[in-house]
Amino acid sequence: STQCPDCHRVYPTPKRMKIHRETIHGGPEVVCPICHMLLRSGPREREHMKMHERYPDGKCPHCDYHHKNPSSVYNHERIEHPQETVMCNVCGERFHKSKMRNHMEVVHSDKGSRDYRCLECNKIFKTQGTWRQHKMVFHSNRPLLLCTICGDEFRTQRALRSHTMRRHEEPKLSCPQCGKRYHAEKNLRQHMDVHSDTRRFPCPDCPKAFFNQKYLKAHMNTHSGLRPYACPYCPDTFAGSGARHNHVKLRHKKFSLVQ
Q1: Judging by DSSP bridges, how do beta strands 116-117 and 124-125 pair with one another?
Q2: 247 and 123 in a common domain
Q3: Using alpha carbons only, what angle is made at residue 69 by residues 65 and 71, rounded to the nearest 5 degrees?
Q4: At what angle are helices 213-224 and 241-251 packed, to 10 degrees?
Q5: Which is nearest to 175 in space by CA: 184, 164, 166?
Q6: Residues 221, 253: one domain?
Q7: Do 43 and 103 reside in the same domain of the chain?
Q8: Does residue 150 share a domain with residue 41?
Q9: Both 16 and 88 in a single domain?
């Protein structure tokens, strides 16, 4: 086993510990040029500097509270003045009322489109889900959740539950036609379509037909050139969610540990 020198969490292999350090703790230590706090370069440094932009004088906009660490001001405002913030109806982020117009112009200004722009690195996503996943992996300071069976780490309870079910529990559902086993009923239902003789969803642009609308929609994107499914870890985009899922599994294995 190997221990992380930053947080003292123990990992089964040096490789696993290295992935954890690169993803969570960033690079070498740097000094903030504004408040002189000692930070790790990387995601936490970028988040810290973004907070300085939000609170340039280190003061709460609603009362006399002030602090040299802008994150402390942010936490104070969120807890003590929740009535002064409003939620963006596009992406769900909360802002002070005076900042909402600027947020809409910067993040959601593409002529009515529903693109989601990351304020940290300016990467654009077509869906709220991939935008949130990107933020969670690259720009979040939320503590990781540890799988007590194998030691893998995850950002959300949902990801941890999914991992536990898929990696450490036997599938309970089986296909009556071929015996293939699944954890989730929706996946079994989707699989059962394969045994049907009727492809009820024909493509209007070519002779192909599909078992369900999900596959048809992904196929039609290949005709139109649309690639609305963005990878949260790199610039690649895909016509269907299945292609994106396979790409992430093959190309971004190390990040799958911390989703």
Answers
A1: antiparallel
A2: yes
A3: 85
A4: 80
A5: 184
A6: yes
A7: no
A8: no
A9: no
Which residue is it, tokens 């536990």?
A: 164
Domain that holds residue 230: 117-169+211-259
Transcribe 50-92 into DSSP letters.
Answer: HHHHHSTTSB-SSSS-B-SSHHHHHHHHHHH-GGGEEE-TTT-
Residue identified by tokens 């947020």 is 103
39 and 151 co-located in one domain: no
Calpha distance 67→74 (Å, rounded): 10
- Average of per-residue pLDDT across 35-53: 81
Q: How far apart are CA 197 and CA 18, in angstroms?
A: 50
- For residue 106, what pLDDT is reported? 65
Answer whether 0.85 is exceeded by the pTM: no
Residue 253 structure tokens = 């294995």
Indicate whether 258 and 158 sit together in one domain. yes
Residue scoring higher pLDDT (124 or 143): 124
Residue pair 26/41 in contact by the 8 Å Cβ criterion:
yes
Domain count, the chain: 3
Average pLDDT over residues 45-66: 86
Query: Which contiguous run of DSSP H or E holds residue 164?
Result: helix 157-168
**Helices 70-80 and 43-54, axial angle in degrees (round to 10):** 60
Give the distance from CA 154 to its chain's centroid. Answer: 11
